[in-house]
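Subject — a protein and its fold
Fields — amino acid sequence, C-alpha cells
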Amino acid sequence: MKVTERKLGRIFHLQFERGDHFYGELNPFVKEKNIRSASVFVFGAMDTLDMITGFKSTQGYDVDRRHFDDRRELVGLGTISWPDKPPEAFGEGVTWTEPQPYIHIHMAVSGAPGKTEEVLAGHLSAGITRGLSVDIYELI
C-alpha cells in the first residue's frame, strides 16, 4: 500500500442549471481555478447522459458505451488530476500539447421514468444537466 498525506485546500460548490453541458462547464472551471488534485461529488439529474462501463483485460478494453436521452438521476464520486499524457481510457489517437485536467467520475444512474428497477453503474462521459450539484474538495 502507498500512502500520501494531503491537506484540504479550497472547497467549491457548483450548482448546474437545466441545459448546462456538464463537462463543457466543469472543465473550464477546473482550468480557471487551477484545481490540480481533488475529490469530486456529484448529485442530481440529467436530461441526457453518456456513460461507459468496462475494464481493460489482456485482450484490450472491453467497454460498453450507452447514451440516454430520458431524464435520469445520478450520484457520482470522482477525482481531478492533471496527467502528463491522455489516460489510456481515452483510446488511441488522443494527443495533448500540454497536460489537461482529467475529471474521472464513477456513477450510479437511475432507470428512466417508469423504470425504477433499472439502476446502472459506470463512468460519466457526457451529459446535459436538468439540475445538479457538484462539490469539489481540493487536495494539496
Q: What stands out?
A: The mean pLDDT is 91. The chain is about 10% helix and 55% strand.
